[in-house]
Amino acid sequence: MSETAILSHETDTRPVGRMALLAEFWAYFSENRGAVYGLFFFIAIVLIAVFAEFLAPHQPNEQFREAFLQPPFWQEGGSLRFPLGTDAVGRDVLSRLIHGARYSLFIGCIVVSVSLMVGVFLGLCAGFFRGKVDTVIMRIMDIVLAFPSLLLALVLVAVLGPSLINAMIAIAIVQQPHYVRLTRAAVMGEMTKDYVTAARVVGVRMLRLMFVTVLPNCMGPLIVQAALSFSSAVLDAAALGFLGMGAQPPTPEWGTMLAEAREFILRAWWVVTFPGLAILSTVLAINLMGDGLRDALDPKLKRS
Amino acid sequence: MVAFLLRKLLVLVPTFFGVTLIAFVFIRMLPGDPVILMAGEKAMSPERHARLMKEFGYDQPVLVQYGRYLKAMAHGNLGQSIITKKPVLDEFLTLFPATVELSLCAILIAVFFGLPAGMIAATKRGSVFDHTVMAGALTGYSMPIFWWGLLLIIFFSGILGWTPVSGRISLMYYFEPVTGFMLIDSLLSDQSGAFTSALSHLVLPSLVLATIPLAVIARQTRSAMLEVLGEDYVRTARAKGLGPGRVIGLHALRNAMIPVITTIGLQVGVLFAGAILTETIFSWPGIGKWMVDSIFRRDYPSVQGGLLLIAAVVMLVNLVVDLLYGLINPQIRHMD
Questions:
Q1: Are residues B142 and B222 in the same domain?
Q2: What's the mean per-residue pLDDT of chain B?
Q3: CATH code assigned at A91
Q4: Which of B29, B150, B336 to mutate to test the interface with A (most CBs of A within 10 A)?
Q5: Higher confidence at residue B322 or residue A149?
């Protein structure tokens, strides 16, 4: 009888289930006001990308031969027909920026999912099997990390040929060592815990143990890393585009737009300023979200 | 300490061979005939092709080729640039000081502003200053530096006319390089105005390159300080009646510095990646611009050599950082 009394005394009365978890997450996340702003801004960019066809006043590659390098509407010589001005071949800057949002989000999504999947798989293998498998995987990751990331991406693109797809592959390769390291460290931390031993004793098979039992408990740091690498994927892809090694003209990718605008920097400030501002604000919004995610998901910082 | 050093070196050896393997495989992965790629000639007679094939050793098995590549590398032979016909190692060594000068200035700026900003932000947690520094740091961290550089050029060179747009020094001045660092060489040259010219060329590129390390260092310093300020020994020091200057300067700062020094060391890779973009924007004749130019000129021996040398430099600096870390933090030395 006394046993039940102790048990009922210690029973956790907090609500359980998916909704409760989400509510708890949101409580921590929304404590960070910057993160909430970042989230709203990010949602806005997603909406802009989805409805680009309807929002953009013109087609991104449509040339207006009567309006080369026209300034934004608030400057003399500008008009509301081209709110943010036109570029050197008479294309509407605003329309190109709106369509460019699609490329940046697409790059981020693909790079993060590819590097996350490959990285998590390799990290799980390294953390579970240890020994030779671990050594080989981690040495290969050390080799990838020995190169400055942008340099390796640049050289990979030089090998594969400059294009948006190849730039994404290169960035995904450069980024996945971080996922491998994180997953491995998290798995090694979990492996010593009782629930893993219990699952083993019950005879749970390896694959199920890896992906169903242990992996969900390692997700916190991985989600934070995913947000960080989403933003650096957007940045790196823009940098590659800027160097002429990413998306090729006339694609309205923001970095490529900057590269095309470079020779006009002293004549037409708007063709340079707005694409960069778009990159900066998108990356900033995602990083703000990343900080909020870290506050909400990192158990080390969580106040109980 | 010696055991610690040996252990670190032992891990580095396979990584280094992996890096050489990647540099070696790089040429093989390029689409096209490696002989034509390495010779950089468009039209080639079959006889010349056969002779070059033998000369480069492409008629040998791949493993023998790799062995030859390693052997040549050990003798300091990294091949010859297709464009300038000079040895790749010489080209690298000529341009390297320019990148080092730029990176050193950048990291000095980053530490000089980042450390105090992070420290003050931590001690005044929640203040307006703290929020401003953190917002600024996050913006800097998110900055596309190739755009930031262009903006600075528009403002300081275009509108104000204060700084030159490209290069390391005005063409008016010429002197033989002594140290390879333009700031020092211009002082040694005794030409009036040379130093000012070199400095004005250096300011914008190093500011641009400093942006991301500055942001990272400020953030890292703040969080390291915050962690240390919550420790028991800091409370004890306070309870003993030590003034805030002593508590923060002596007790907290020393321990907070450990992760910060590692962070500063880890910026080497970031600096190299940043140098690629910064040097391209400012036409700074360093390694970053050389790599980009070599890729565009299809100067593959240069790309191959540069890739290897840059990775070697990054690994070496990281090793030094690891050793420093072991020196200031004995716990690390005895960990596996």
A1: yes
A2: 85
A3: 1.10.3720.10
A4: B150
A5: A149
Give yes or no for a contact between A139 and A90, defined as CB atoms under 8 angstroms apart. no
**Do B151 and B216 lie in a common domain?**
yes
Across the interface, of B150, B157, B269, the residue whose CB is closest to A148 is: B269
CATH code of B325's domain: 1.10.3720
Per the model's pLDDT, the better-predicted residue between B74 and B187 turns out to be B74
Q: Do B30 and A273 touch (CB under 8 A)?
A: no
In a domain, B311, yes or no: yes
Clarify whether residues B110 and B148 are in a common domain: yes
Minimal C-alpha gap between A91 and chain B (Å): 20
Can you give the pLDDT at residue B336?
Answer: 47
Considering only CB atoms, which chain B residues are within 8 Å of A239?
144, 146, 277
Does the distance separating the beta carbons of A143 and B18 come in below 8 Å?
yes
Q: Do A255 and B295 touch (CB under 8 A)?
A: no
State which residue of chain B sits closest to A232, comparing Cα positions: B142
Kindly determine whether residue A239 and residue B144, on different chains, have CB atoms separated by under 8 Å. Answer: yes
State the pLDDT at residue A4: 47
Instruction: State the pTM of this model.
Output: 0.88
Kindly identify which residue of chain A lies nearest to residue B305, measuring between CA atoms: A155
- Predicted confidence at residue A3, as pLDDT, reads 47
Contacts for B280 with CB less than 8 Å, ≥ 6 apart: A243, B146, B288, B289, B292
Distance from CA of B173 to the nearest CA of A (A): 26
Contact B212, B124 (CB under 8 A): no
When divided into structural domains, chain B yields a total of 2
Q: Tell me how crowded residue A130 is: count the other CB atoms within 10 A of its CB.
A: 14
Give the C-alpha separation, B293 to A23, whole Å. 53
Q: Would the CB atoms of B277 and A243 count as touching at under 8 Å?
A: yes
Query: Across-strand partners of B80?
Result: B87
> Is B239 a member of any domain?
no
Q: Which tokens belong to B182?
A: 């333009």
Q: What is the pLDDT of residues B172-185, one digit of tens each?
A: 777 777 777 888 88
Please state the domain count of chain A: 1
Q: A128 lies in which domain range? A: 35-301
**Which chain A residues have a beta carbon less than 8 Å from that of B30?**
158-159
Q: In this predicted structure, what is the pLDDT of residue A304?
A: 36
What is the torsional sign of CA A192, A194, A195, A200? positive
Count of CB pairs separated by less than 8 Å, A with B: 120
Say yes or no: B64 and B194 in one domain.
no
Q: Rounded CA gap, A149 and A151, in Å?
A: 5
Same domain, B175 and B102: yes
Residues A147 and B269: their CA atoms lie apart, in Å, by 7
Same structural domain, B98 and B216: yes
Q: Report the residue of chain A nearest B279, measured CA to CA.
A: A243
ipTM value for the complex: 0.87
The per-residue pLDDT for range A79-107, each reduced to its tens digit, is 888 888 888 888 988 999 999 999 999 99
Average pLDDT score over residue span B219-235 = 85
- Lowest mean pLDDT of A166-175, B33-42, B92-101, B161-170, name the range: B33-42
Query: Is the same domain home to B40 and B104?
Result: no
Is residue B256 assigned to a domain? Answer: no
| Greatest Cα pair distance in chain A | 90
Instruction: Give the tens place of pLDDT for each residue, A54-85.
Output: 888 888 888 888 878 888 888 887 788 888 88
Chain A CB contacts of B19 under 8 Å are 143, 146-147
Q: How far is A3 from chain B (nearest CA, A)?
A: 38
The whole domain housing B95 covers 91-226+261-335
Q: Is residue B247 part of a domain?
A: no
**pLDDT, tens digit (0-9, with 9 covering 90-100), for B18-58:** 999 988 888 777 777 777 777 777 677 888 888 877 777 77
Confidence (pLDDT) at A14: 63
Query: Does B97 lie in the same domain as B65?
Result: no
Closest CA–CA distance from residue B145 to any residue of chain A (Å): 9
Write down the pLDDT at residue B105. Answer: 94
